[in-house]
C-alpha cells in the first residue's frame, strides 16, 4: 500500500494554503477559458502556461491540475447552453444536453454534466493512483491494425447504431470522410481536394468544423424557423440547480457506464475522448430504445451523463499514461508534457523516482480540483442558464460573433472564418434534410487515424489484408462490432413488427 502513503504525503503538500489558492485559481481560469466557444480545455492549458512560469514546480503543476479539469468543465457549458462545444470532446454532450436546455432544464443539464465530470474524473484518478503501470502497458498493445479496427467500430456505431436511419447515417459518415480527406496526404505528401488553395493544404481545422456544424449551423436553422415555428426559440428556465432523486437515480448508471468507456481510452493515443464519448452515447441510445417511454431526442439525461463522465474519465487516465510512460494521448496532455519539459522533467517510469514529491502532490491536487470545480459549478448552474433568457436575436447573434472570434483566435486566419461560413451552411443543410451530425463529426475526427492506420498495416504486411485480422484484439473488436450490428438490426425489425401489429 505504498501508493496510499505517497498519496497522503501529496495531500499534505497540496493542502497548504498557498497551494489551495493555486488550485482554486486554476479551476476558475480553466473554466473561464473553456467556456469560450472554439477554445476549450487544450487552449486553456496553452494560454495559461506562461502564467505558471513564475511559480515553483509544485505550485505550477497544482495550478495546472485545476486548469486541466476546469477546461473540461467549461467545454460542456457552452455545448449545453449554446450547442457550441468548447472542444471536440464535448460534441456528444450537445445532442441531448442542448435539448434539455431548450426544454427549460438547463440548470439540471449543467448539474448532470458537473456531477458526471466529477464521477469520471474521480474514478480515473483513483485508477491512476493504483494502476498507472498497467495503464501504460495497455498503450503498447495497440498497433496500426488495432487503431483501424477501433476506428471502424466507431464509424459503424455512429452511422448504423446511433443514427435513426442507416442510409442517412452512412450518407453523413461519407460527408465527414470527404471533409477529412482535404489537405496533404500524411503518407505520400500529395495534395488532395485543395482546389489550388494553399490554405487548404493543412486541411480544415477541427475547431472550424465543430463550431460551424454545431453552432453556426444551429443559428442558421433556428433563424430559418423563427416565423414557421416560434416555439423553436422559446426557452423557460427552471432554477433548480440540483437533480431530483429520480433524475439522480436515472443518471447514476449512465455516469458509471460512461466512466467504464473512458477509463481505458485515456491510455490509448487514439486522438482524445471522442471515441468513448460517442460510444457511451450510442450505448445509452440503444438502451433507451428498449424502454417503454424512450426519451432520446427530447432531452434524455442519460444521453448527457454518459458522454460527460466518459470524457473526464479519459482525461484522468490520460494523465496516468503521461506520468507513467511519457505518452501524451490527447492535445491537452501534449501541452502538459511541454510544461513538464519546461521545468526540466521528463514524464516516464523514472518520474515517480526522481520527482515523486511533485507527482504525488499533482495527483492529490487532481482530487482537490474536482471537488473545487463541483462546488464552483453546481451553485452557478442557474446563473449560466440565464444566458438563455437573453432575447433570442441577441443571443444567436452573440453566438455567431463569439464563434467567429473563437475560430479566428485559434488560428489567426480570415480564411478559417470564411470556411466557418461554408461549414455552417453545410450544418444548416444537414439539419434541413434530417441527416445526423454525429457521423459527420466522428468521421472528421477519426478519418485521418483510420486511413493512416490502414495504409501502415498494409505497408508493413506488403499488401496482405489478412494483417487487419492478425491479432486477438482486432478479432475481438470486429466480433463485438458484428454482434452490435446484429442486435441493432434485430431490435429495429422487432420494433417495426410491433408497430405493424
UniProtKB/TrEMBL annotation:
PANTHER family: TRICARBOXYLIC TRANSPORT PROTEIN. It comes from the Bacteria. This is Tripartite tricarboxylate transporter permease. Keywords: Membrane, Transmembrane, Transmembrane helix. Residues 20-441 form the DUF112 domain. The chain crosses the membrane at residues 12-36, 42-69, 109-135, 147-163, 170-191, 203-223, 322-340, 360-381, 393-411, 417-446, 467-490. InterPro entries: DUF112_TM. Pfam families: TctA. It comes from Pseudonocardia charpentierae.
